[in-house]
Amino acid sequence: MDLDNLTQISKRDLEMIQLHQFQQPIYCCNVTAIAYAFTALGYLTTVDEIFYVAQLPIASVLDDGMTLAETYDTCRIYIERKQLPLSIQVEHFDKPSMTLEAFIREVEVAVGEETDVHILNFNTRIAHENPSLEGGHFSLLADYNPDTQEITIADTNPKRYTRFWKCPIQRLYAACVDKDSSSNRSRGMIVLRRLEANLAGEGVVHPADIALNELHSNND
Q1: pLDDT 10s digits, 109-150
Q2: Mean pLDDT of the chain, nearest integer
Q3: Buried (b) or exposed (e) across 14-36, using 16+ Cβ within 10 A?
Q4: What is the DSSP track for 127-184?
Q5: Tens of pLDDT along 198-210?
Q6: Are strands 150-154 and 164-168 parallel, antiparallel or unpaired?
Q7: Residues 98, 215: contact at Cβ < 8 Å?
Q8: Is the Cβ–Cβ distance between 115 and 11 less than 8 Å?
């Protein structure tokens, strides 16, 4: 799809996307988040198309849901088969380098950029401080206020959680650190970013790439 013919959508303009068109009458917030993210980057994508292109067995999504790693694999497969000029990176929050301070730095960079989208995987009980909620969920980073230290989430299920909601970034971080019982690993985030500048041979390094690489430099 030609991005020149599409309206460029920033994270601050996520409200332009009609979320009710993405959420399906089944529990698939992970696939919904993928479709939402690709659309926010300028590649109009539906939930059904993700299932079709990635050849996802419906049972694998509905029974126990998909882990962060499985959602990452689905994103990667879709990018490869559609030949999209996007990079993808996954961050599990049980990595020693992914501290609260590192997460805040990543979020601060992310909300100032229009070429990337962050899919967050977190525990809803922790994020909403509501023990009656189911647990794991996928939604998108929308904004961050450094003065109040509140993060804004663009939810994939607005009928249940409202379209946008806020919580302290420390609480959202704790919700991402929570372990997924299906994988016995912490949850975390997937970073998708457009690569037009690099493909054009300009040698441009995205600021978020620098930030993420710096996070892991101490582990090398």
Answers
A1: 998 888 899 999 999 999 999 999 878 999 999 999 999 999
A2: 82
A3: beebebeebbbeeebbbbbbbbb
A4: HHT-TTS-SEEEEEEEEEETTTTEEEEE-S-HHHH-SEEEEEHHHHHHHHHSEETTTT
A5: 444 444 454 445 4
A6: antiparallel
A7: yes
A8: no
Does pTM top 0.85 for this prediction? no
DSSP state of 203: -
The answer to whether the beta carbons of residues 88 and 192 sit under 8 Å apart is: yes
Structure tokens at 200: 């054009």
Residues written for the chain: 220
Sort 117 into a burial class: Cβ within 10 Å, 0-12 / 13-18 / 19+: buried
